[in-house]
Design brief:
mainly alpha; about 55% helix; single chain; elongated; about 130 residues; three-stranded parallel β-sheet
């Protein structure tokens, strides 16, 4: 309803459920991904996937989003709008930087090692 009320039908598209392949295509076509959470957000897989594909990503300063190498803004419309504009001006630099950090820091090898460390620490504490 808000999209219609604001006359944004040609600018906003709700795609619904998407397969992994379709998500990859969406991320690769996008210039910017925005995760505009207002509260109680964990780490966003969508943000990580987006940055991994080289799509500049902006998130709001909420919960687990603060741990990501995304551009972090206050969850206020004016702050988001200003950051969208700045990001568009520096798109390639931001995209490459985020992609590099995500691929080096949030990859499956590090994830597996971290979980193995947690399991080993749990075993030792028994």
């Amino acid at each position: 309803k808000m999209v219609t009320d604001l006359g944004l039908q040609n600018n906003v598209r709700f795609v619904g459920h998407a397969t992994k392949e379709e998500l990859l295509a969406h991320y690769n076509r996008a210039e910017i991904t925005l995760i505009p959470s207002l509260e109680k957000e964990g780490t966003s897989l969508s943000a990580l996937e987006s940055m991994s594909c080289g799509t500049a990503t902006i998130v709001t300063a909420v919960g687990g989003l603060l741990d990501l190498p995304a551009i972090i803004v206050e969850p206020k419309a004016i702050a988001i709008a200003e950051e969208l504009s700045l990001t568009l001006e520096n798109l390639s630099t931001i995209s490459l930087k985020q992609q590099k950090v995500v691929q080096e820091t949030f990859n499956i090898d590090i994830w597996a090692k971290t979980w193995l460390d947690v399991i080993n620490a749990t075993q030792r504490s028994k």
